[in-house]
Amino acid sequence: MKMRKFKNVVALSLAGILTTAALAGCGSSPAAESSPAPAEETTAPETAPTETASEAPAEADVSSGGDEGSILNIYCWNEEFKSRVTDHYPGYEAVDGTTGKIGDVTVRWQITPNDDNAYQNNLDETLLKQEGAAADDKIDIFLVEADYALKYVDTPYTMAVSDLGITDADVANQYQYTKDIVTSSDGTLKGISWQGCPGALFYNREAAKEVFGTDDPAEVQKKVADWDTFVATAEELKAAGYNIMSSVNDSYRVYSNNVTSKWVVDGKINIDENIMKWVEDSKALFDKGQTTSAELWSDDWSKGFYPEGKVFCYFGPAWLVNFSMAADQEGSIGNMGGWGITEGPQGFYWGGTWICAAAGTDNPTLVKDIMLKLTTDESIMKEIVVQDDDFVNNKPAMEAMATDTGYSSKILGGTNPLAMYCAGAESIDLSNLSSYDQGCNEEFQNAMKNYFEGNATLDEALNLFYTAVIEKYPELTY
Amino acid sequence: MTNKTRGKRGKVVSYNKWGYIFLIPFILTYIVFQLIPLISTIYNSFFENYRSGLMQIGPNFIGLENYKSLLSNPDIWVYTQNTLIMWVMGFIPQIIVSLLLASWFSDPQLRLKCAGFFKTIIYLPNLIMASAFAMLFFTLFADGGPINSILIQLGILNKPFKFMSNIWSVRGLIALMNFLMWFGNTTILLMAGMMGIDTALFEAASVDGATSTQIFYKITLPLLKPILLYVMITSLIGGLQMYDVPQVLTNGTGEPMRSSMTLIMYLNKHLYSKNYGMGGALSVILFFITGILSLLVFRFSNYKKS
After folding, report:
1. From A342, A351, A434, B48, which residue has the greatest number of CB atoms within 10 Å?
2. Which residue, among A372, A375, A382, A363, has the nearest Cα to A103 in the 3D structure?
3. Residues A397 and A427 in one domain
4. Mind listing the pLDDT tens digit for each residue in B154-179?
5. What is the pTM of this model?
6. B46 in A contact zone (CB under 8 Å)
């Protein structure tokens, strides 16, 4: 009796083995279905499909809004754009959490969080099916971030804004870098943004007074004017018990925005000098205990938002200091108006959201209008600055507000930071973006963490980086 | 399965067709959700088939190229080793603690109070989602987390210990979590096995003057062997598929230096680029590794028996 039971057990466990492989293989089954599609996609991605995409809206443009789709599908990853539209787009009425109305058109918000690449995975699948989708299910607008903008912009799935009827003159006031990010490799502008996210260095005023004897931005700037000075200053701060930055990852963007070559050159992974400079400087700071290797957004990283965290500075754009540095928490530095702002060693940007029109949209007129209203209408944009503390993508408007003494930021101790941001926005040069940036930047920081923490030599860490990138982009070599 | 039906046929022939009818749901589910994916996984493993951005590459038939590049790369063996190390680190304490608890719970002489209560308690960790559990540990053992503050306040450490930056502490934490989650389950299985042993044997042994240690080693353990074997095989299969705990704890990186990266985490890495070819090949290799290891364990224990 026992023996038979035992055999059943064995039979069951063998069935279990089968399950293993079956489950492990689950991901593979859709491959067979999607295989017929690629033929069209791989051949001449720039020419053929773009034409069809651009013809459709041209016709639609002639006939007025009446013939257009009754549902506007917007794909995004958080509530930010939704709240901008709700608050500032004339005629928008919220119906419930995920729908709204503009005139007769129903706006459907398809919000998928960014975590674990879920937003892009969902968007990819839907975009690939765009051609065959029913008019009401077609994506009309989707949002992208700078790190992966080129992935979408360089495909026929994204419509050129000129095909919507938006001219160069319409976007003349926008910062050049915001256009560079969404310009495809053949030079067409394919997206548009209402915000600019130039970064600056936010320093703890108390710490500056204690260590340098002054919290005047011009004086502090001298202490952080370039990277070598920055590293030297770290020593001085450490003597007083302060970490210069919360984490080595804080300064990563500043270095990586100022590269002189792309991540991928002719199919080969290429590491820029300035990125290696980051490794060198960060290793020095880390080894002397002047900063940590905490992940951005982790609890350890956020400790410096409070005076007890003993962190001298953070690098970031307006939204970081306004919304993400615990300014609404009693006792935080931001709450007490304790941050100062200065340019820092190099100009950079962080974040920003771009509005792209999906090829095949059935609401081109409305898409165009939303784009124009939110990103070029000066009165709406000024409203956004005042109400939402955003830095908007309009050079003359921002420059006017920079000199306005009536506008000030409480978090920054009552100064008007806009001049600092304006200067930053002008200096950003993004000619070296590639569609591999997101994966490369992420994996590079992950791999180097091992080097900083002493778990690997530099070579081992670099090898780990290459391995990880090739897993993400199998077509590359090193 | 065949075993069972054959047994039935001998006794009650007239009910035979009901046997088949009742098997239909299982067979259907098995074919749709397991057999077809299994075959298509093997099929896919012979193709170059991935997506770069929005561009689809392939599928192009490349024969055994995926297997070649996987097997020629030492990484896959490193990840197999990681997986097994972490499994063993979790399994050994698990089986020891479970045996101990099971023999206590099933020993009527001890007259344990509230046995039912404790049996429930030890099972509870298994009810928490693995990812939530890993997230909890991640927060607890962060550089500035509560565990570090407690250790510093007690004067045991003078600066925070970086649990997440040390190979053995990360592996240890993963093993600890797996141990905590599964020892209750194992205890219940072993207890069932122990209760199935004829009490006359225990009585006879104690009449003959055997100590409880002798009873445990000479009677309980040998008779428990089939259940132990079952526990071991299922745990091995589960261990080779270890994924959620290390994935969440290390944020998918398997840090430091991928020393806590398991095979399935590695498989997941290929899904970023929807690399069905490479993913398929890896799944097939994993299938064979699991099969071979299970057979080895089975053969080894069976051999001794006969």
Report:
1. A342
2. A363
3. no
4. 988 888 888 888 899 999 999 999 99
5. 0.79
6. no
